[in-house]
Amino acid sequence: MIIIFRKALSFIKRSYLLQMSYKFEFFLRLFFMFFNILTYYFVAKLIGTAGQAYLAPYGGDYFSFVLIGIAFSGYLMVSLRGFSESVRDEQMMGTLEAMLVTPTDASAIITLSTLWNFIFASFRVLLYLAIGVLLGVSLAGANVLGALIILALTIVCFSSIGILSASFIMIFKKGDPINMLFMSTSELFGGVYFPVAVLPTWLQTVSHLLPITYSLNGMGGDRLSG
Predict the structure, then answer these.
(1) Do 190 and 80 touch, CB atoms closer than 8 A?
(2) From CA 17, how far away is CA 81, in angstroms rounded?
(3) Could you give the CA distance from residue 170 to residue 153 in angstroms, rounded to a whole number?
(4) To the nearest 10°, the Cα dihedral for 117, 123, 127, 128?
(5) How many domains are there within the chain?
(6) Structural domain of residue 145, as residue ranges?
(7) 164-196: pLDDT as tens digits
(8) Is 138 helix (H, G, I), strand (E, B) or coil?
(9) Are 216 and 191 a contacting pair, CB within 8 Å?
(10) CB atoms within 10 A of CB 127
(11) What is the pLDDT of residues 111-131, one digit of tens each?
(12) pTM of the shown model
């Protein structure tokens, strides 16, 4: 257990140092994240109460709805693509083969190399919520424990798909197009940017096949109020 913990810290430190070596890209990502939040904030102002019938289960406020959607969907996207991206990055840097000949199992390498992505995703969620509070979103009625339980179960579900995608890359040395299709479909039909109820009935069938739909619906009662 101590050895695994030390290896995890080593992977996190390595990923952090690599990320900080591209400081401009790091701060640029934060800037566009803030820009993205402002975009949805003003879109919510434009919509006003027009979609209140669809947003009633989520507190009736579009900005609160989409804020939580884009914040926590970041975890799900990391679960899906984080493993494969880490493996691909190691391939591009020529370090994957060197790590595979070490005593560390391939499964541990894939898992530990993604820890920094989840840490950064957590930082982004906290930043999303902090900016949301500054823009008038209330945290008073949030069921944090319930949201965390649902989030943890969803990450496990999505990570299984992400690990399969990473395995695909390790074997065939190429990206997995199925993973990209699944991510795009989940974002569009999973209730991240708008309630599933807005969609036509036949498209809601697609939504009901996606794990992210049930995850965000589970957080529906815990979504923040404006």
Answers:
(1) no
(2) 21
(3) 26
(4) 40
(5) 1
(6) 2-222
(7) 777 766 666 665 666 777 777 888 888 888 888
(8) strand
(9) yes
(10) 15
(11) 777 888 888 888 888 888 888
(12) 0.75
